[in-house]
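Protocol step 4 of 6: record predicted structures for both targets in the notebook before any analysis. Target 1:
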Amino acid sequence: MQQDDPSYVPRRLRRERRHPVKVTILAVTMVVACVLGVGGAYALKLNKAFDSAQVVAKEDVLPTYSDQPYKDPGDQSMNILLLGADKSETGAALDLTANGTDQRSDSMMLVHIPEGHDHVYVMSIMRDTYVNIPGVGSDKINAALQYGGVPKLRMTIEKMLDVQIDHVAAIDFDGFRELTRAIGGVTVDNPKAFCAYKTTPDVCFEAGKIHIEGQRALKWVRERHAFLTSDYQRVKNQQQFLKAVVSKVLSAEVMSSPNKIADVLGSMMPSVTMDSGLADKQMLIGLALQMKDVRGKDIRNFTLPNAGTGQAGGASVVLNSPEWDLKVGNAMEQGTMEELYASIPEEFKGK
């Protein structure tokens, strides 16, 4: 990957890296405690939950590079690359700082929070989407992780959409077992009866509204072999599950109980790896306060529209649509995501 050097003068201005005032973790969590009107014991519990996440230096996982898409310094929107961690061929967990490995991502989503902070747009990208990987050539987008790790994947998506990605986070899907237990499970609308054949054959799900948590939730969200449309249906299920989880977390049942909030964070954060910019607690507190009115109905799930399936080098691929790449990128940059969402064909929208 091409990196900036001191003598290089970019053709476009680039946002300077911020250096927020450093404060102690305890002090920041005490601010949260004060905002929520609870005592120091809760602050310590919340601090422990935050501390359990894995944090990597932002410059290691999101390095700047020449000709990077420009983002106006005054633009207060946020783009987060969210990866569902899958074990590699060797069984190792996804490493955000690894460069050129056998890693892969079970799912990839680009989360866009507009300047108004009144909605959240979660766009899934099919992992078999056939795209141009900078410095490599055409291949499935998931292969970018093998060619250059998360930095190469991030560059590939930025070049596709012509937008800048601000942060990255990876979530080990195994962590959802404890999360769903902490919130008492979620209800999803299962499109068809199926059994998780590649895992445990006797884990089956009836069609219609079902309540899932723990290991059953993990089986439901990861299954793809039971569907004729394979990854397409799995992506839809993952989108629906994520929205159900967020809706439950933002419900009065959870948000009215400080200890419940800490328990939810404590069950999830050990399974999260994120860049140091996203892990900045002062920033997270501000973001949370700005988004305090967001609920499940304000979350828009969709898959990046594509041109269907095809063959490339003897492999089955998802054909990328440059036209939709341009539309999505422009909408993110111009603050017109709601209008874009309304124009997306129903087959690409989640529930």
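Target 2:
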Amino acid sequence: MASTKLIFTFVIAFLLSLFISPSHSFWSYPPNDDGLKVSAIDSSKVNLSLYYDTLCQNCSTFIVANLTEVFNNDLITIINLRLVPWANAYINKTNNAIVCQHGPDECLLSTLEACAINVWPNVNKHYAVIYCFQFLAIEGKHKDWKSCFDTLGLNKTSVLDCYISGNGTKAMRYTAFQCSFYKSMLMKLAI
């Protein structure tokens, strides 16, 4: 029974994705009126969004061991890949703070990843940073995240500026809005 409900939910989510135009802001990162970048969407590609917890071992392993194959096998040429570091986070209604399932370190890394996505909209570039963060998470060294920028030869200043300015938090809040929207749509369809 539970597996039937799960399959039904995935089918409904897939059907919803067919009816939501790529031009809608629900696919792209936050609207650029907040100073955030919006990624261009190639309508000839398949849209794929991956919502994940930054410090979840299974999510990290999937990103490092499995998702890499999308790039290694050139599937990225036919996919609009959207990485969303949110999954089981929520906004506390009392103090309006973002709360992450695996604590403050996860919120920090998720916000930094949202900033990397914003600073480098090219999926090949921000995936490299996310891959590095996730690799460190698997090894229990997530606090060494700054080393990823040196390893990849990327300037961390733009990502840190995004984080300090609050644009990363804006991206996270926008993601929360998207998650609520899709969840409410699925709940309405499942009833």
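Step 5 preliminary note on target 2. Strands lie at 46-51, 79-84, 90-91, 98-99. The chain has one domain: 47-190.
Proceed to step 6 after PI sign-off.
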